[in-house]
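Submission sheet (multi-component)
Chains listed below:
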Amino acid sequence: MKVTIDEDKCCGAGSCVLLAPEVFDQREDDGIVILLDAEPGEDRHAVVREAAAVCPGAAIAVSE
Amino acid sequence: MTHADMCRPAPGERGVTTPGSVLIVGASAAGLSTAEALRRQGYEGRLTLLDAEPHLPYDRPPLSKQVLAGAWEPARAQLRGQAQLEALNAAFVRGEPAVAFDAAAREVHTSTGRAMRADAVVIATGLTPCRLPCQESRNGQNREDGQSGRDGQSGQSGRNGPAGVHVLRGLDDALTLRAHLTAARRLVVVGEGVLGGEVAATARGMGLDVTLAGLGSGILAGQLGEQVSALLTRTHAERGVVLRLGVAVAELTGADGRVTGVRLATGELLPADAVVVAIGSRPATGWLEGSGLALGDGVECDARCRAAEGVYAVGDVASWEHEGLGRRLRLENRTNATEQAQVVAANVLGADRAYTPIPYFWTDQYDIKIQAHGLLSAAAEVSIVEGGVEGGVEGDAEQRRFAAIYREGGQVTGVLGWNMPKQARLLRQQHLVTRPLASA
Ligand SMILES: Cc1cc2nc3c(=O)[nH]c(=O)nc-3n(C[C@H](O)[C@H](O)[C@H](O)COP(=O)(O)OP(=O)(O)OC[C@H]3O[C@@H](n4cnc5c(N)ncnc54)[C@H](O)[C@@H]3O)c2cc1C
Ligand code: SF4
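Outcome: structure written.
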């Protein structure tokens, strides 16, 4: 799995961090998403897909 | 319990009554998310999405921000790329509004006379912007949503009363408004809510003279409480917005069919070449009249977002029993659309999941990003904290960066970040995660 983020679309909601703190974090100053793990392991695929689904900025993309 | 726990289907929880076909009416944030969640949760049956608009699904928050400002091409606001939409393996019917519904038969009738039946129907038709009474009476036409299958139709604001008066809900609205603002000099925004504040901020950025008129005492006073609202209102004044708050609009004035100004109840005339009416919206349920569904403030659902046997509602249009808060709620925000979609999809597939989210919205105005988690009632006691350290000290007025905690009866009901998104999220985790979800 490959995860990509579009910082420009991120609104700093932090929904992704709430779901998958091992994969996403937020910058201290403006809350924009930080991708901690662009190729998360199998055990995290479901939760990362869900993070992409609930992201209110449609800022997270997942490819196989 | 986290949002993840709430949404992930538990093993063995579904598959009992998996429907053979699902029809989703409204293919925007909530409808599309429901479709995606159904597939992700393993649904392999027939899936159809019907929408009144001809466009590919797009996102609305950028419409009053990046798209209106011209910073983004409209295509940038698209929710998903072509490949992702195709991967859904769903039939999209666009540009064809639903005009009637029979809940018992789960049959939707569209503007072309087509009847669509499905084992499960998901209602995701969002909102229709309210107009000023003087706008609606102007051309003798009732613009209430759904009166002639108009739910979700956009870009017709110019035909409402004098030309140059806009509402903003859809992409066409945003592009029409942008085209007008690039040529206009004086804008009057009517409404001091989120949309009014955002449009005023974006228009100032485009160099227009902006006056904002509204009934409330301050911008977002109803949503953020007096203290933070006062700061936001002051920011607008500092950025050059002329404010007329706590006063009603009496009428729109026009000449040769074009708007020339807004007259207030005080008699004052605010001259304008363009007017944006942002006085709120109502659920787009016109097409559901006579359907057999309970329509109150939106489609009335139970705690599982079920409106009737095999019928669900999701997003801005849905009103449901929030079991954690012990009351009926309808949220008009972007996160709710996608979060509720996860629960609705699970329930469509046979789960029995109550929807108990922590409400959340954000707004961007000028360089300010406000994040609001939980319920921030105007009655709450607000204490400013910084970086998560509670101290009751004023936020740094120079840098204008702070986080605040809202309490009612000693209980934390909400947290807010003012240019502190991460800190607000941390405060949410600290103070809000379990409480509203306690009975979930
Ligand atoms: C300009 C603007 C800015 C916003 N900014 C923010 C923000 O900063 N933060 C935030 O949290 N939220 C924001 N929101 C709110 C957020 O966009 C909504 O909560 C979200 O779009 C709700 O999604 P929805 O799918 O429920 O409804 P909608 O997005 O309104 O989608 C409803 C869909 O149903 C279709 N439809 C309607 N009637 C019919 C019918 N009869 N037949 C078929 N189809 C129909 C419509 O065409 C539309 O595609 C903003 C909204 C707007 C308009
Ligand atoms: S959920 Fe989306 S918008 Fe929110 S912080 Fe993560 S990437 Fe950004």
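Remark: The CA atoms of residues 386 and 402 of chain B lie 5 Å apart.
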